[in-house]
Design goal:
Number of strands of chain A: 14
CATH class of the domain at 17-195 and 305-396 in chain A: Alpha Beta
Structural class of chain A: alpha/beta
Oligomer: homodimer
CATH architecture of the domain at 17-195 and 305-396 in chain A: 3-Layer(aba) Sandwich
CATH superfamily of the domain at 17-195 and 305-396 in chain A: Alpha/Beta hydrolase fold, catalytic domain
Strand content of chain A: 15-25%
Distance between the termini of chain A: 41 Å
Helix content of chain A: 25-40%
Shape of chain A: globular
Chain lengths: 398, 398
């Protein structure tokens, strides 16, 4: 925090939790354990979060934004580690579709993460060393349980809306399934009700890359004073390809060479796409913990609402939540078919659902990018729901 | 070779070339250098190959089969290292579409490979140590140049056909472009005239995984008595996902668990897809050299016929070759659009071309699998071309 960094200096997550820049923290004592799907409990534990806007007196205007695999709680404010702006400032802020002049927005670092919420880098009270692989494997349901405990502590009975893309969308669906009475409106974007075989496969490659790095040290790299940066970088590179469409890669990079006129006949980054991927890998290791990557990918792999409830319609039985399900035409990681399966189940459960497939060539990452149709659709849906919920519009109009 | 191995024993490529099981070899002395696109020469050098069937007196019935990235010359006979049957026995053999009762079939290990043809594990005459990264980077055109030298040595003027899938299809297209007068018929399958940005990206991930492995030793692992098996395994796992379609992964594995009834809440292979991928990675390192993987992927990345000739139609100008271009509906690594671009260029060049997109849910690997429409199409095309070429049918009919 006190160090000066330029845009080109590497920035490292302080591995010792106490040294990290702190968000707001909800701390739960040894007497307030978090029940986990693994059949065990976590205690003490904590959840780090940011808020934007003001909660109204009736506590009816809270919007929970759920972040994706490598996201964080800094949805609409600068990340103190990277110095970069919030990751969804186009969506969340004054006058934005999720309007902080009207709504009280909460975004929490997920359980298993590395930005303040309990995760594998957290000190294990049983050993006084970082948990590492002694941290129980967590699930999307566990992440949502932790968020529900935070919402309890904030005194919020029913969230006005839960919104998120990718793994954030999984959390939205889990919220709607686990706590239907606490979710007025739900917006799962570029997600699905399960992780597909191909998705699991890509995650497994990433995990194997991390665990193949000798500096991973069986998960105990913090105690060893090491970091499996090479393995984590390869994992990020592989994953990053899946976030973009073939078309967007072609448009952005094609076969363009990197700062040269000819091929070098070597193994340096001849092509811009190589240089871009290497950069993605190298910068990622500065802001993300390798064990967290293992845990959070595992949580996604385990996600399967139909298995949890017996069937997907059963997951949404008698739901009164209003859903706005959204997918992108060029997203091959969570293709439209996965969203359609959710919509079909919601229809079978007689839920209130609208579905929008947005035409975009940007692939899975479209939900993070400047896609006007996404913003206008969400603005319309959220505003309609807020009016139905009786949340006053800013300035008294809408 | 003398060791007994069972199907479950690991089999290792002998790293010292002289210890490897030998195919037929065409050896070229220090006075017979191979010119390379890198602007240098390779000498001495050699190319290892297998043949099937008999060359006719006129030498008009030779079919060159070109193998893919991790393929080898054992197209229709057992691989002496793995003990497995040839990789395309459904396509090549007596009575098969490429009928060894009618044609003389040649299949050579590619330049830069690791099964007898000169590659990075070959002894560098300048140092008496394996080339490692001192081997010049080679291209698809260099591979084809080497094959042309082999064909010269066999006394063959014109190949009746050149056939191959994936990187083999790239070689087919390069043959037709570089030596149009020497190719009567060409069958590029599941290929394209360039490597796309996404394809380069996946290869770069694989290379970074290999080079991140400390046992890679900067490429000099043979001298160090090591092998970067973990890195190579991760590279193979990542690549293997791209060879299958989302649909085929879903059908074959879905979210099925591996030999267990419940999730283990750990990082072992819970899902069948994980176990399958790990197996693919582990068995691959027993039969493939890590530096060869770097070189051969690089050759594919560099492939771009339009760049070489100024435009794609220019690559096929005045071609008299008969083409049968084939793609598969679910192949996302070399999608039909890449084949269509080739066909469009062939049409613009007024070449003789037929194009078949085969309906298959098996992804890129379909060309290696039991896809009846592929066999019947190639049988029909090859038979028609053979009749036009005046190659007698076996038994005097057909």
């Amino acid at each position: 925090m006190a160090e000066e960094t330029s845009a080109t200096d590497p920035v490292h997550i302080p591995l010792i939790e106490a040294d990290r820049p702190s968000s707001k923290l909800a701390e739960f004592s040894a007497n307030e354990p978090l029940e986990l799907d693994a059949g065990t409990e976590l205690a003490p534990w904590q959840i780090a979060y940011e808020t934007y806007g003001e909660m109204n007196a009736e506590k009816t205007n809270a919007v929970l934004v759920c972040h994706a695999l490598t996201g964080d709680q800094y949805v609409a404010s600068s990340n103190p580690i990277t110095g970069k702006p919030g990751w969804w400032t186009r969506m969340v802020g004054p006058g934005r579709p999720i309007d902080t002049d009207r709504y009280f927005v909460i975004c929490a670092n997920v359980l298993g993460g590395c930005l303040g919420t309990t995760g594998p880098a957290t000190t294990n009270p049983a050993t006084d060393a970082p948990y590492g692989l002694k941290m129980p494997v967590v699930t999307i349901r566990d992440m949502v349980r932790a968020q529900a405990r935070l919402i309890d502590r904030l005194g919020i009975d029913t969230l006005f809306a839960v919104v998120g893309g990718s793994m954030g969308g999984m959390q939205v669906l889990q919220w709607a399934a686990s706590y239907p009475e606490r979710v007025f409106a739900a917006v799962p974007i570029a997600a699905g009700a399960r992780h597909s075989s191909q998705n699991i496969a890509f995650h497994e490659v990433g995990r194997q890359a991390i665990m193949a790095d000798p500096d991973w040290c069986g998960g105990a790299y913090i105690a060893a004073g090491k970091r499996p940066t090479k393995g984590l970088s390869v994992a990020r590179m592989a994953a990053h390809i899946t976030y973009m469409s073939d078309e967007s890669l072609h448009q952005k990079f094609g076969r363009n060479l990197q700062d040269r006129d000819d091929l070098t006949f070597g193994f340096d980054a001849d092509f811009q796409i190589e240089s871009y991927l290497r950069h993605q890998g190298m910068t990622f290791v500065d802001r993300f913990d390798a064990n967290s990557y293992l845990y959070v990918t595992r949580a996604m792999d385990y996600f399967d609402l139909a298995a949890e409830f017996g069937s997907l319609p059963a997951a949404f039985k008698d739901s009164k939540t209003r859903f706005c399900v959204m997918s992108f035409t060029s997203d091959w990681l969570f293709p439209t078919s996965e969203s359609r399966a959710v919509v079909k189940a919601l229809n079978a459960a007689a839920a209130n659902v609208s579905f929008v497939e947005i035409d975009s060539d940007r692939g899975h990452d479209a939900f993070l990018l400047d896609v006007p149709e996404m913003f206008s659709t969400i603005r319309g849906f959220i505003t309609g729901a807020a009016n139905a919920r009786g949340i006053p519009a800013p300035g008294g109009s809408d």
